């Protein structure tokens, strides 16, 4: 049992002040930092420089520098041909992007938020995802759909939905949900180079968050493989599986629990299709306990899929307790601040769930 | 002798003004005809009403139209024999549209349409057996039987799309890519009178005009969106004007030379940097919307018969080129026989060929699969994800 001494408290607070984030297993030579926003911006820039066929389209991506400033500076650098402002017509411009990909270009189609992708979802699923299969392997669609996904802050019900479950349901799509700055840079680059349609689910709250970044990640050829999860924090008592912002919440909970002697293994999924089942199974075999954490709704969510996979795998025989899903509340997002907080899982919810699963007070 | 022929020709020709012919030996080598007037929207001048066709082209155009008619008839029969399943939308009656448009297309041009595309698949380079065997779902189908009637593809032909209207933004995207890459190609994005009210079409009218995309929007108006006549579905049936700020042309879609002329005009318009154009081809389908629609609950048999007898695109073209002396009846008969043989053989193959093996069910879900298997019916029989197809956009 570890008790927090004053010295450790100071150290922890200093670390918090400096990096704000928990441990990463990447090699960090210098403590260079990068925000998620800059990581995406750099990734987009590098891929546009590398391949002339890559272009970015979406609302406000050019002259406005991006609604969330992800594409800042790109229009200035590449001009009208490669960074294109669209009218507010998602179905139209997403369809155009898919057609352009069918004809050999490499479009990056931004949805200002994934909530608006619903207007275009037919093009994403029926035109992009299925065409390679329907054409018996002739016409592949090398497109990237990207934008902020899930809950933000105070934007209410129509602007807060998580689309991880909807998109990861469909064969033909690859779906990624990065967390760290390195994840974002590596995955956006991998997505652009991937010859199949990739959905990149970002998060508005994460855009401004700075992460330590390794030297390796600064390279123009740094890629994060799609379909591979990462163990953000090794542990032995219980496995926490999360994606996107829920990884942060899980790491915060893990930190608190470590103070009470409970070591959580936190898995950052990074991709939800393909889902890195192997990493999760291996971890559960080690820890015998599993909690999934997500901000999206419970029914048919990412946690549900992870649970089902565990049931169907050998990991089931290593479970000492049922798998529990920690999710957003099954209701549209309220605007009221205190209600919004209560509608989304917080670190203390995860802490409580861990203790309950481990049968600890 | 020639003047006797001429008098004979004059008596026979009712609908068309006197063809003028240029002759060599006992054939004419080129003939000129007058089309119905084109209707123009926001255009100072349009395609010429005076159209000509060479002997060579006449044979080729006739051959292609007749092939499509035979192909579709065979498809209809196979469907009734239950050898084609699901959806089957026949193009019979609309042949002049596809063949006329294709005749004006250049190698760098592309086309995309909805689901009434068996004829287009053939025109874009797939042998009749590749079309018919695809309909019966066999391995010699152009997409190995995995697509079926609505999902056929060929070079510069982007399907074959099942969702009404979705093909139009895709077509604008293809045209966008042509402009981006500097290929000088245009894309013809086809849709019907039923699809013409789709919001996404208006969304891409806007973008195509804003960005000067070389896309020709083609509304094949066959008078009916499934069982709903154009008048019952559209507040404005002047589909060639629906692009509003985009210029438009109305064409008699039963006159192949008019369609060819108008498409030529449209292509020139686009490649000269004038941006998109809308072309409405007024045509007619003899069958119902699909094979599950007899096509008589919302229109009279008399109406269908009337069109067959007075406006059929193939017989009216046949009459034209025969009376102009461009071709002989014997030549056409030989063509028709050859076509019949081709189709008969294709049908035979389509009936007897095998389906692809079960190992191809999980094949080509991804062009760059990241997992070796595809989840099967149960977790105990995962399937191997194979890669078979050529994936044209890999590198």
From TrEMBL, chain A:
One of its GO terms (cellular component) is mitochondrion. Residues 34-209 form the Transketolase-like pyrimidine-binding domain. It catalyses: N(6)-[(R)-lipoyl]-L-lysyl-[protein] + pyruvate + H(+) = N(6)-[(R)-S(8)-acetyldihydrolipoyl]-L-lysyl-[protein] + CO2. Gene3D superfamilies: 3.40.50.920, 3.40.50.970. The pyruvate dehydrogenase complex catalyzes the overall conversion of pyruvate to acetyl-CoA and CO2. It comes from Cryptotermes secundus. It is found in: Mitochondrion. This is Pyruvate dehydrogenase E1 component subunit beta. GO terms for biological process: pyruvate decarboxylation to acetyl-CoA. GO terms for molecular function: metal ion binding; pyruvate dehydrogenase (acetyl-transferring) activity. Its main location: mitochondrion.
TrEMBL record, chain B:
The keyword Oxidoreductase applies. It comes from the Eukaryota. InterPro entries: DH_E1 (IPR001017), PDH_E1_Alpha_Subunit (IPR050642), Pyrv_DH_E1_asu_subgrp-y (IPR017597), THDP-binding (IPR029061). One of its GO terms (molecular function) is pyruvate dehydrogenase (acetyl-transferring) activity. Its cofactor is thiamine diphosphate. It is an enzyme of class 1 (oxidoreductase). GO terms for biological process: pyruvate decarboxylation to acetyl-CoA. Keywords: Oxidoreductase, Pyruvate, Thiamine pyrophosphate, Transit peptide. The keyword Transit peptide applies. It catalyses: N(6)-[(R)-lipoyl]-L-lysyl-[protein] + pyruvate + H(+) = N(6)-[(R)-S(8)-acetyldihydrolipoyl]-L-lysyl-[protein] + CO2. Its EC number is 1.2.4.1. Residues 64-354 form the Dehydrogenase E1 component domain. The pyruvate dehydrogenase complex catalyzes the overall conversion of pyruvate to acetyl-CoA and CO(2). This is Pyruvate dehydrogenase E1 component subunit alpha.
